[in-house]
Amino acid sequence: MDNIIYKHPDEIRVVAVLGTGSVGASWIALFLAHGLEVIAYDPSPHAPESVNEFVSNAWPALRELGRTRLLRPPLDLIRFVSSAGEAARMADLVQENCPEHLEVKKKLLAEVEAVAVPSKIILSSTGGIPPSAMQEACTYPERLVVLHPFNPTHLIPLVEVVGGRKTSPVVVDWAMDFARSLHKQPICLHAETNGHMANRLQFALMREAVACLQDGIASARDIDAAVRYGLGPRWALMGGLLTLHLAGGDKGMQGILDHAGQAIQEWWTPSTSVTLTPELVQKLVKAAQEVSQGESVQHWVKWRDEGLVDVLKLQEKLGA
User: Fold this and answer.
1) Residue 88 reports pLDDT greater than 90
2) Which whole-number Å values give the CA distances from 287 to 57, 96, 116, 290, in the listed order?
3) Residue 2 is assigned to a structural domain of this protein
4) Could you read off the pLDDT of 190-201 as tens digits, one per residue?
5) CA distance 256 to 252
6) What is the rounded distance in angstroms from the CA atom of residue 182 to the CA atom of residue 9?
7) CA–CA separation, 221 vs 154, rounded Å?
8) Rounded Cα–Cα distance for residues 73 and 88 (Å)
């Protein structure tokens, strides 16, 4: 149905947010910062209180980044309703954040499809379910597209845009433009894969971190320090491919591969099997206590968000 006319991203005024856990609440904070109204649905009776608290805590960072000039979040622009269908019917755009279970998502999408006109785009935050699998529940599959954010959603610029086999190219382009309107940095994936792409990248590193911990190569704190003080500063400026290219000096990528290609191949080939056995899980729980120094998650979330503002300001200043 390529003849469907979708509202321009600038014409979106009301967003239905389905699921208001940490991802959904973070989206709500960002939507409010950009002047959008939110019709929210979440089966938890505590959802309204939790969302208001999350948005209020997120607001100072959004102000510091220049995403809003309002001193306080306009919590009156959030309205909770009793069903996903009601939220979808009342909004210009549907944004889905329900649990990462295909059947749960398909059931919710079927409810949305029953009431939302074909020109109403559906964005999914799924972190790894291929959109084609979700489209099996859709009467109008061409309007479903993945817009996968990264925690914390209201601050981290990256979003992955992933279309399914039946997603209209127009909808993929629309999602890219909508993401940019929210000051996001969207990337478009050309193929579906479990975990999308960025999760594959980060969990490749996470796998090796766990393997180093399992093998006793270094303490949990020093494993994290290697990323924070070695890899992280460069990665805030450039990705792994450009980093490798610069390592080759004047000859660039060809030079580093000629010089150390065999060694690199050995380094990136896993030498340890990592399986989340009960013993390893306990080791990771102990590691978390070590790296968090006994402080609460809430303490570190506040510390992280304040630090991210400075990092993101530097990225915006330097550009690409």
Assistant:
1) yes
2) 27, 33, 47, 5
3) no
4) 999 988 999 999
5) 6
6) 10
7) 27
8) 23
Please indicate, yes or no, whether residues 152 and 291 belong to a single structural domain of this protein. no
Domain of residue 128, residue span:
9-189
Whether 42 contacts 20, CB under 8 Å: yes
Rg (CA), the chain: 21
Assess whether 79 and 51 both reside in one domain. yes
Handedness of CA 225, 227, 231, 232 (dihedral sign): negative
| pLDDT over threshold 60, residue 20 | yes
The domain boundary residue, chosen from 142, 163, 189: 189
* pLDDT tens-digit readout, 226-279: 999 999 999 999 999 999 999 999 999 999 999 999 999 999 999 899 999 999
Same domain, 230 and 181: no
Task: Point out the domain boundary residue: 144, 167, 189.
Answer: 189
Q: From the CB of residue 161, how many other CB atoms can be counted at a distance below 10 Å?
A: 24
pLDDT tens digit sequence for 2-15: 688 999 999 999 99
pLDDT of residue 320 exceeding 80: no
Q: In what order do the strands lie in the sheet with 122-124?
A: 78-80, 37-41, 14-18, 93-96, 122-124, 144-149, 158-163, 185-189
pTM beyond 0.85, yes or no: yes
